[in-house]
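Reply to dn_fold:

You asked what the input looked like. This is it:
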Amino acid sequence: MVCYTHIYILMKESIYFTGLYIYVFVKSMEDHKEELILILAGYQKEMEFFLQTNPGLRSRFPIHIDFPDYNQQELLHIAEQLCAKRQYTLPADTKTLLLKLLLQHSSNNDNFGNARTVRNLIERAIRHQAVRLMSKTSITRQELILIEPVDLKEVKE
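and this is what came back:
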């Protein structure tokens, strides 16, 4: 049996329920150690807090895997893939602005969502592009697939 839980579900509950969850995890891990795999996932700071909620909890999770955040070029590549999947293109000036926005988001926000932030920015830019193009009477295919800098400038995160 494999059990996967996201740490934030536990952290949003009251201290009583968090303690109860931990008790159930520990008990299940002991009673079913030969047939249970328990995987916890979360951001590093929140995981650290969770593991400190019970003195024996950390030792019960001997394997910790840290996934580093994507760098700016990887995030740009993710944006390009998201756009290509929907048949949109990002010209060079839009890519430059996107990198600038990502840098601002990552430096001003402890909860920077990394690839999720990229997805949100692209989805909002696509909506802004659609609104921008609605006012035109004639639209070319090129205009339909092009995400311009103005589409990103309107995006608020």
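The chain has a mean pLDDT of 82.
Hope that clears it up.
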